[in-house]
Amino acid sequence: MDRTLYIYSRLAAGKPVTKRELADRFGVSERTIQRDFRDIRDLLAEERPEWGLDRTLVLNKDDGTITIQPPIVSSFTSSEAYTIAKILFESRSLTKKELDTLLRKLEDCCFPLSDRKRMRDLILNEQALYVEPRHHQELIHRLWEMGRMVAQQQVLEMEYRRHSDGRTVRRLVKPVGILSDSYYFYILAYFDEQDEVATRKQVRQKFPIGYRLDRIVAFRPVGRHFEAPYAKRFKEGEFRKRVQFMFTGDLTEVSFWCASSALEAVLDRLPTARVVKQDKDGEGAWVSAEVYGEQGVSMWLKSQGSLVKKIKFKKK
């Protein structure tokens, strides 16, 4: 029984086994191991109604390994794992150590098993040449902790190193979300009423401030919670549609003319954008979008050169 349990636990964890390996480990014949496999196969059949899947033991004829298929431990297909790896490379938001850890786990989750080496070969070059952000700070654990504070609606005291002068300042904030933008993670937060530095205008402003996570020197909950009715809770996805380069401000409508050749890129960059009117000659269109503030979106639109013209802003 202990032997069968060991074999099942290995298989359930997504680890392939062979008859020869198991027979040598337990000092029994391969025929005995085959009976263990039969018992496990019967168990998988009994669990079929609960899983809603037909799981069974599958022999890989190339290397003689046996696995449970589909796996009990959720796995990525090879294409899914490779896509996630590419996104991680392009984001450039993690240290090399954290990235390597995630890539190794992605490789382990690849399915089928025969694709794991191919996955490693595909990402090896990019992994070796990866340039981590200059702050060199590991953020994964801090992201999770901050996410918990957001979910629990806890007022936080934090020490924040400002970009403008390098000074560390104390802030009392209500964190409402986390976003990633241009290689950095940001905590979105409103000023708390008890912050000694915040002005009345800052406390009452309708949009949150973005604080770069790597510049937060320390943070701790102060033991108070802030209230936000579910219907009025901050929605990161909606905010993300309306902010560029983490420059925030009042909700504003921007309108402009855009050349047809750049229209697709503009509409993808500004998720709230809509075409108001198409030129009759098909050369361009007038576009309108909702954004927070003017600076971020203005920077991006102007970077398009002659493809975007006649930019106008109107506060809502």
Summarize the structure.
The chain is α+β, with helices and mostly antiparallel strands. 39% of the residues lie in helices and 28% in strands.
Sheet with the most strands?
5 strands, antiparallel
Please tell me how large the radius of gyration is.
27 Å
Beta percentage is 25-35%
Count of individual beta strands: 13
Q: Number of helix segments?
A: 12
Average pLDDT, all residues: 88
Spans with pLDDT under 50 lasting ≥5 residues?
Answer: none
Secondary-structure element order, as H and E?
Answer: HHHHEEEHHEHHEEEHEEHEHEEHE
Termini separation comes to 70 Å
- Secondary structure: helix percent: 25-40%
For the largest beta sheet, what order do the strands appear in spatially?
8-7-6-5-9
Structural class: alpha+beta
In one word, what is the shape? elongated
Can you lay out the helices and strands and say which pair or pack?
Layout: H1 2-12, H2 19-26, H3 30-46, H4 48-51, E1 56-59, E2 66-69, E3 76-77, H5 78-91, H6 96-109, E4 110-111, H7 116-129, H8 140-151, E5 154-161, E6 168-181, E7 184-191, H9 200-204, E8 209-212, E9 216-225, H10 236-241, E10 251-259, H11 260-269, E11 274-278, E12 284-292, H12 295-302, E13 308-315
Parallel strand pairs: 3-4
Antiparallel strand pairs: 1-2, 5-6, 5-9, 6-7, 7-8, 10-12, 10-13, 11-12
Helix pairs in contact: 1-3, 2-3, 5-6, 5-7, 6-7
